[in-house]
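hiii so my PI (J.) wants the whole complex modelled not just the main chain, which honestly fair. so below is everything: two entries, each one labled with what it is. i double checked the lines twice but i was tired so who knows lol
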Amino acid sequence: MKNIIAKLNKAFESRIRLGIMSALAVNEALDFNALKDLLDVTDGNLASHLKALESIGYVQSTKQFVGRKPNTRYSITKTGADDFKSHLDALGELLR
Amino acid sequence: MEKQLEDLKAIREMMEKSTKFLSLSGMSGIIAGITAIVGAAFAYFFLLNNVSTASVVGSDDFWMLLADALIVLFISVGAAFYLSMKKAKKNRQKMVKKVVIDTLYHLGVPLLAGGIFSLIFLIRGDIAMVASSTLIFYGLALINVSKFTYPEVHYLGITEIVLGLLAAVFLYHGIIFWTIGFGLCHIFYGLIMHLKYDLKKA
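here's the output for the full assembly
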């Protein structure tokens, strides 16, 4: 039992991070506002979680301009996708 | 244990919410179906009678037929739009812009192609093919969009295509297949979706 719990990824303990990873796992890329709509969180809150996920290499961002407005699109990295899948498997195993 | 279960539920919900348009209301199918039947009955009894002039472009009957079709379309789409917004509000889910755009795009492209294609038939006076082409393209549009919404939409799409092909075989009974496809099938699938998704959540 302990073994399985150890496999759960600490990076996904927060519900918001879990939400970000879930949404990015099934979408090619999402911009900041789309994520905000989905998660129903404040700008600052979302930004800090995204930054954290980016710094551990689970999420990558590309900045572009739509007209004059900067638009940041986020997508999941290969590492992020792999680790998220392991986390899902661990969750599933735990509940079996 | 409780937390993990909640986590899994949240993950699943987020994956669905970020890719699917789940605000579609079954009731809008029922309304679209009834509107289609009324519209088809009007066309059948007043416009497409024995000595039909509706196939003559520019005749009064032609314009009446086009107006009839557009009114049916307007009421159906309007009802779908209004009820979706209402359902989204009730379930306190924001309609995610990206999902709405994905849905409209995948539904709209085949629908627009089919609409123009059917209009060409209509203008050429080949009114018999219109029932078939509208049914087939509508079915293709539904199948194309079904990956973004409830699975019933996929089955409705297949049904519409089969009816469209039958309408092409029995060319002069097109209005019957059209009424079944746009009328009865909408009511049938709308009712299923209403019972399965809308009532349960209430």
